[in-house]
Amino acid sequence: MRETVLREFPDLRKTGPVRLRVRIVRVEGQNKPRLDVRKYIEGRIPTPWTRKGIRLSAGEVDALLKIGPQIRRALSAQSRLPHQARPDDGGKGGRTPGRHRVRGSTKTAKSTG
Asked: Does residue 78 fall inside a structural domain?
């Protein structure tokens, strides 16, 4: 899948060799350009983009911008709260100190000494 870069914007993040790039691209076989936000890793050997990214159409960008204030408020609120169960961890809220999973059951770690 070949792409043509129509416009590049300043990187959103630069951490060592990792770049979070924002570009407008046209993908071969598709009529309309897309917003491409993608992680790149730069090194001595040229590395292509990683699969860690997203491509959005103009309509999807509009929808994202419309809910942008809600997303910002939710992010701000979450940063002020203590750790809670999140949907991506199955509702477990992370690991409980002193407990670990063993073959489908939960065991309590015993101290030695």
From this structure: no
